[in-house]
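Sequence in, structure out. Go.
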Amino acid sequence: MVDNTWLGDLTAPGQQLRVAVGGKGGFGNTRYLSNRNRAPEQCTTGRPGQQRQLRLELKLLAEVGLVGCPNAGKSTLIRALSAARPKVADYPFTTLTPNLGVVRRPTGDGTVFADIPGLIQGAAMGAGLGHDFLRHIQRTRLLVHLVDVTADDPCRDGDVLLGELAAYDPTLLDRPRLLALNKSDAVEAGTSERLTTMLAQHFQQPCHRISAVTGQGLEQLKQDIWDRLATCA
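Output:
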């Protein structure tokens, strides 16, 4: 990116992009060496190349992106599913940088999951930490939307997150997405079941009831992730 103009996107090994034209060297005095002139003093200066200041942005490559509001349990989930060990704590914005984890499929190969800092209202415009890292989920094939069962209003939290995704990049709403209600171990079973049904109705899609701490529902969630990845581009 230069002068806020997008120059290109390098997505494959060995891919090249010309961002400036190089110069052309001039001829030195040896070019004019001859039998008659053994010490020529002639030369040409050549042509200078272009100069540009570039801003490079890294976009992580992951197939599955974990998204949610702060303290929804994304880092705990990626710890439970993979060997990644991001910092976890009981306060918002524990995650300050994106985390990657490789989750093994039943076939033995691995799938890269990305956990980005939690999103708050206004993240797409720079509020909180999410704006700096939303680009890391733009190349994912599937999003897992985590909602905290202990939140004051889980449905509103979910609406805020979808609104921020749409504000940053409307095409993210077209991405295949799974919905999961996390921390189900922190409330009574009846409350967890009621909120799961409420979220499924509110977002008009099935909702997983999971606990990243106890492992409840994680095997079914993983199976649904593999199934969705097998059918999405």
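Check: Residues 1-6+21-56 form one domain. The first helix runs from residue 74 to 81.
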